């Protein structure tokens, strides 16, 4: 990674994803968040501009206030439940998502294709895979049931592929209105935040489109790391680099750099 | 790989339950006697989730009996699934996710056993599998849901869709799963098996109501009066439970809400053993912590008191 990732010196990939992800969340929204960068982004947003943000965690945890230096490793542990408002159980937590209570679903890196479909199950044949990956966990449910889904991921060639071998978590499936036709009547993937820029989905084809690059990144660089025909908005915007305030607060939440790297 | 009709046969599951004694009597047995209720070939569902409130004391005791041909079901399968693979105890894993967590990387044991075809892994989404237990807990053959639609997970178990009879929309009819045995670890129970859980309830109650035989370990056995003082905290009534054993630290080194924290350092040592020696690393671990510890007390003696005191201190602080 470059020393000036996102246009700021000494920023790690996870710091950049957390800062850019936090900016996507608005005050008083409800967010169903996964671990890793989404968790960092959620807790950062809560401490910056969104004190009224309510987090839901798949371990069955509503409204936690995570403690600096004690951020959770998983969504199913006491650190994740710290100062929670409610502990409803896992199935019921997801049923709240099915009912439509979550404005944003926030999930982390995986293999992703041009329609925003994610594969965390298997590379190659599913029954005799070349690489068996850990599986959906709650990602399939978050992407299926939340109103707007934001994916945070490192922008690497091995992650961005034309078509995933296996759709673990459906983005826009085969593009167009195929997601709706599959029965997923609500929500969908709206935004992919990467280490190179911000992407959305062109409204008709539902193919991935480059919307903005981070400072110091060119459109060509993004194309080089995206091995499919990437749509590009005209003009392409440039994001604001992470500020000292954002980075300082983020680093104070994870003083041992366990998550920010 | 498709689901078997027996998994969602709600009539057979109902008959099995009706034929079983559901006495209000004594459920308290030894840990060994509880473990002996698991037969070869059984479909076994775990309570807790990942490294939270896993019935590890009970499962270690089951593994010491060298079971064969089990199907293990757990939404987030932690390393107990790897133990069963290396021990030759499991024919199939049903899960939404398997591993320990981000810092420990992809499970090398899962990769070795699943990629070679030795142990198939049937994957559901987290809610999908949760609803399989919920449907069974409700005594129904399926539940309608929106989740998993549009994904290739629909094809893994052979999920079917239905057309909503009211709105005409397409819904996923997620099939019930009635396990043969549930393994649960709870905070406290009385000797009649009335169980109370502190903190997050996970899926334990649904799993208990869904299963033909329910085996529970408890951190503490309390009086009947103590249960009756706080009946709102009882999540599983005694008539659901078949056998109960008193196992303090029964989830350790996994966590038990408010009582003790997990031991990420211990997980790190376990994974380092696998990185060094592959499946042999798990065999060494089993020799020391499972087969080598004849009783639960012997097992706990493998951890220093200072280490457990610190885990208890963190557990109290995190739940305060």
How would you describe this structure to a colleague?
By secondary structure, chain A is α/β, with parallel strands linked by helices. Chain A has helices spanning 13-22, 37-47, 90-99, 139-145, 178-181, 219-224, 244-253, and strands at residues 30-33, 54-57, 61-62, 104-107, 111-112, 118-119, 122-123, 131-132, 148-153, 189-194, 197-201, 208-213, 231-238. Chain A has a nine-stranded mixed beta sheet with strand order 3-2-1-4-9-10-11-12-13, with helices on both faces. In chain A, strands 5-6 form a two-stranded antiparallel sheet. Chain A has a two-stranded antiparallel ribbon with strand order 7-8. Chain A is globular, with a radius of gyration of 17 Å. Chain B is an alpha/beta fold. Chain B is built from 13 helices and 14 strands. Chain B has helices at 10-18, 31-35, 56-64, 80-86, 108-115, 126-137, 153-156, 204-210, 224-229, 264-277, 279-291, 296-300, 305-318; strands spanning 43-46, 70-73, 76-77, 90-95, 97-98, 121-123, 142-145, 160-163, 170-175, 181-189, 195-196, 213-221, 234-236, 243-246. In chain B, the strands form three sheets. In chain B, strands 1, 2, 4, 6, 10, 11, 12, 13 and 14 form a nine-stranded mixed beta sheet that branches. In chain B, strands 7-9-8 form a three-stranded antiparallel beta sheet. In chain B, strands 3-5 form a two-stranded parallel sheet. In chain B, strand 8 (160-163) and strand 9 (170-175) form a beta hairpin. In chain B, helix 6 packs across helix 8. Chain B is globular, with a radius of gyration of 19 Å. The chains are: A alpha/beta (261), B alpha/beta (320). Chains A and B meet through helix 3, strand 8 and helix 4 of A and strand 5, helix 5, helix 6 and strand 9 of B.
């Amino acid at each position: 990674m470059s020393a000036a990732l996102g246009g700021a010196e000494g920023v790690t990939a996870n710091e950049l994803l957390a800062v850019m992800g936090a900016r996507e969340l608005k005050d008083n929204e409800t967010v169903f968040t996964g671990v890793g960068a989404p968790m960092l982004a959620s807790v950062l947003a809560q401490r910056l501009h969104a004190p009224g943000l309510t987090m839901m965690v798949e371990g069955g945890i509503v409204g936690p206030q995570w403690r600096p230096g004690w951020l959770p490793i998983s969504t199913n542990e006491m650190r994740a439940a710290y100062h929670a408002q409610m502990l409803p159980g896992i199935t019921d937590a997801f049923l709240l998502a099915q009912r439509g209570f979550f404005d944003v679903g926030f999930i982390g890196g995986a293999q992703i294709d041009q329609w925003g479909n994610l594969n965390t199950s298997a590379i190659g044949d599913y029954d005799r895979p070349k690489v068996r990956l850990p599986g959906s966990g709650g990602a399939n449910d978050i992407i299926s049931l939340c109103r707007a889904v934001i994916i945070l991921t490192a922008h690497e060639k091995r992650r961005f592929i034309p078509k995933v071998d296996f759709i673990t978590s459906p983005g826009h499936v085969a593009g167009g209105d195929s997601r709706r036709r599959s029965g997923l009547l609500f929500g969908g993937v709206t935004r992919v935040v990467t280490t190179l820029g911000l992407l959305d989905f062109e409204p008709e084809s539902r193919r991935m489109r480059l919307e903005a690059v981070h400072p110091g990144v060119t459109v060509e660089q993004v194309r080089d790391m995206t091995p499919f025909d990437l749509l590009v908005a005209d003009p392409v915007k440039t994001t604001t680099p992470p500020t000292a305030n954002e980075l300082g607060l983020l680093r104070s939440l994870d003083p041992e750099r366990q998550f920010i790297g | 790989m498709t689901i078997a009709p027996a998994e969602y046969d709600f009539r057979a599951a109902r008959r099995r339950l009706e034929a079983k004694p559901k006495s209000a009597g004594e459920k308290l047995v030894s840990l060994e006697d509880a473990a002996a209720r698991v037969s070869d070939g059984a479909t076994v569902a775990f309570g807790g989730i990942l490294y939270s409130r896993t019935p590890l004391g009970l499962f270690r005791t089951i593994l010491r009996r060298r079971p064969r041909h089990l199907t293990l079901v757990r939404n987030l399968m932690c390393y107990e699934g790897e133990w069963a693979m290396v021990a030759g105890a499991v024919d199939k894993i049903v899960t939404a996710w398997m591993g320990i967590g981000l810092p420990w990387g992809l499970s090398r044991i899962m990769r070795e056993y699943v990629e070679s075809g030795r142990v198939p892994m049937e994957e559901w989404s987290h809610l999908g599998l949760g609803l399989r237990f919920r449907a069974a807990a409700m005594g129904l053959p399926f539940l309608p849901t929106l989740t998993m639609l549009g994904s290739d997970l629909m094809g893994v178990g052979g999920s079917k869709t239905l057309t909503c009879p009211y709105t005409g929309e397409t819904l996923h009819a997620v099939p019930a799963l009635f396990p043969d045995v549930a393994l649960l670890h709870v905070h406290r129970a009385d000797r009649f098996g009335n169980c109370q859980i502190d903190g997050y309830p996970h899926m334990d109650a649904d799993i208990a109501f869904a299963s033909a035989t329910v085996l529970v370990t408890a951190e503490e056995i309390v009086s009947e009066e103590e249960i009756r003082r706080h009946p709102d905290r009882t999540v599983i009534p005694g008539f659901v439970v078949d056998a109960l054993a008193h196992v303090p630290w029964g989830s350790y080194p996994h966590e038990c809400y408010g009582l003790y924290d997990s031991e990420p350092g211990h997980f790190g040592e376990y994974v380092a053993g696998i990185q060094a020696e592959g499946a042999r690393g798990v065999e060494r671990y089993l020799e020391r912590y499972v087969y080598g510890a004849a009783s639960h007390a012997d097992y706990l003696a493998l951890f220093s008191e200072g280490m457990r005191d610190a885990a208890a201190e963190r557990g109290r602080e995190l739940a305060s």
